[in-house]
Specification:
- By secondary structure, the chain is α+β, with helices and mostly antiparallel strands.
- It has a single domain, classed as Sandwich (Jelly Rolls).
- It has eight helices and 13 strands.
- The strands form two sheets. Strands 1-2-3-11-8-13-6-5-4 form a nine-stranded antiparallel β-sheet. It has a four-stranded antiparallel β-sheet with strand order 7-12-9-10, covered by helices on one side.
- A hairpin with a 5-residue loop joins strand 2 and strand 3.
- Helix 3 packs across helix 7 and helix 3 crosses helix 8.
């Protein structure tokens, strides 16, 4: 069933009927599907840069999914969406982070991918970037992490993920690896499970910006019929326990009219810390922001953050994980 659904929603001619796609922006879909709203305790939680106040967050659990899958409707401010877009395009694409284009030597050692794309208006090079890995680098062949193959995990991404984790009650989560996926209008992500990390209790946090994706959420086998879900710019998905082993994928990217990253929310600028100011200056300046906004018009960026080490473990292949039974 998963393959058939993937093929159906991927189709260009004829295009798929989208009436059966779960839309968390529509209240009637919440009763038709097995969805329940989740309350979060955030009365004392201070607002963090780039986020709306947690008391306004809309958190849903998809009940008929194995394990736990949470969906948070865009908790980001417009300046927050801009910030992470700039980071993913301008900063996270830099060495020593690893990318899919490294093997082709398209970017000289003394150059940066985003800079080359802008200086030469090189759309071809821009569209070639499909993924970046941060922290512990995901090995696409073996699916096994290595202590010898890791970089420094970005502090701002760590701080942001830990903030979300604390609000949702994942107090022991440690952000140690991330994959940034860059989708274009013809991009797909085939059905897969997230099993590279041994501790499935630790959640996987997924943040999306740009164009809308149809996300297929299936079951433990590809024989289970998946649920199609719209994921829009700013939406978050959190998978833990058995839900990480449920087959899921992205068969289609849809171009939308709404620009969730516009206009800038001036009130959010009161929360800027010194670690954010340099990038925020780009986000505030229309001329500097324009190439990033143009990219989002025809693309989708997804950041998924993971915990690699087990609780209490200091290194991979070590025996120092604490007994939590």
């Amino acid at each position: 069933m998963f393959k058939q659904s993937f093929k159906y929603y991927k189709s260009k001619n004829p295009p798929p009927n989208l009436d059966n796609v779960l839309d968390l922006n529509k209240s009637n879909d919440l009763t038709e599907f097995q969805i329940k709203k989740v309350s979060i305790k955030c009365e004392e939680r201070k607002k963090m840069f780039g986020f709306k106040h947690p008391k306004t967050w809309e958190v849903y659990e998809i009940v008929d999914t194995p394990g736990s899958l949470l969906f948070i409707r865009n908790p980001f401010t417009s300046i927050g969406q801009r910030y992470w877009t700039v980071k993913c395009l301008q900063d996270y694409s830099k060495k020593p982070n690893k990318t899919n284009i490294d093997a082709f030597n398209l970017v000289p050692e003394n150059k940066e991918w985003w800079e080359m794309c802008q200086n030469n208006n090189n759309v071809l090079l821009m569209n070639k970037l499909r993924w970046v890995t941060l922290g512990y680098h995901h090995n696409w062949d073996t699916k096994v992490y290595s202590e010898e193959d890791k970089g420094k995990f970005p502090k701002d991404l760590s701080d942001m993920t830990l903030y979300v984790a604390s609000i949702l009650g994942y107090t022991n989560f440690s952000p140690e690896a991330a994959i940034v996926n860059y989708y274009h209008m013809d991009s797909t992500l085939s059905g897969h499970t997230d099993h590279s990390e041994k501790d499935l209790e630790a959640p996987l946090f997924s943040f999306s910006f740009g164009q809308t994706a149809i996300f297929l959420l299936g079951g433990n086998t590809k024989d289970d019929k998946p649920t199609p879900i719209f994921i829009r710019s700013g939406d978050m998905v959190v998978m833990s326990k058995e839900s990480r082993l449920a087959y899921h994928g992205v068969p289609k990217i849809l171009q939308i009219d709404s620009r969730y990253w516009d206009p800038i929310d001036e009130n959010d600028l009161c929360y800027i810390g010194k670690d954010y100011r340099e990038v925020v200056n780009i986000c505030k300046d229309d001329a500097l922001w324009k190439p990033f906004g143009d990219y989002l018009t025809y693309s989708r960026i997804n950041i998924n953050v993971r915990q690699v080490l087990s609780r209490g473990q200091k290194r991979l292949n070590s025996e120092d994980a604490e007994d939590v039974t």
